[in-house]
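Extended Data, panel c. Modelled sequence:
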Amino acid sequence: MEEHNPAPLPTIALEVYGDISVEEALAIRQEVMACYEVLRARPLPAAVNLGLFDTLDQWRAYAKRCREEAGVVTAGEEGFLATHDAWEGVPRLSVCLERLRGHPRLLQQGALRQVVAHSILHGRPDYYRFQVPKALLEATAALGWDSQVLLQLLYFVSIAVKGREAAALLVEHGFVPDQIALAFYQLEKRPDDEELWQMARWEPRARVLYLAAQLRPLLYLHPLLAVAPALQSAGRIMLAHLPTEEVERVEGLVAALAENCTGDTHRDVSMGLIMVLNRL
């Protein structure tokens, strides 16, 4: 029988911005490393940058500078407790302590493990640079849609598809309670949801963008439904401000995406973008 050698653990470069104690920084690093230990059956990145930010303002300023240097248009830190990117070729985990500290430990673990999973599955720059198929550009241009709308839709689809892949990997390796906590957190309604919908619903491009933005939390819960069926009801509650026909349209799209995802990220993102344009 062939002996399996686990992947070597990555070297973690810890970067601390602001007033963060050594104990807190090392505890987060240890949590991240413990997750890599469990996931060693998969190839791991050789090196990872782990950035800890004391305040949201520090995090936003740093992320903005990195996006400008990498030529990335879309923002990524809003609504997240931690983020992952690989714009510079090395996976980077960014954690905002101002956001993370206010939540239960189980949710904190879920957020940290999620970005670890992304670094394993999506640790190269090509997982952050997707192309809109030329045929879609031409078809939507005929409708008066500019390329920026398509790029924003592409972003929404890509984070939804990649999020589902991360959740599936973590659930497969036993990270279930923390991922359930994270899924419920992502499904929480925002105070301005109703107002945003009322502004978007009458303009075709704004409407599609708003509905596509709901894909990330709804697709994330799919690998967890077998063990946490209550997530389905939580997803419906998140959409309760939408008309019934829109809820059914979004839920049908999410179900189709979940059924047709293959694990080939680029193929699934392209497929998802086509589905969004056809179904929403």
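The chain has a mean pLDDT of 91. This feature is highlighted in the accompanying rendering.
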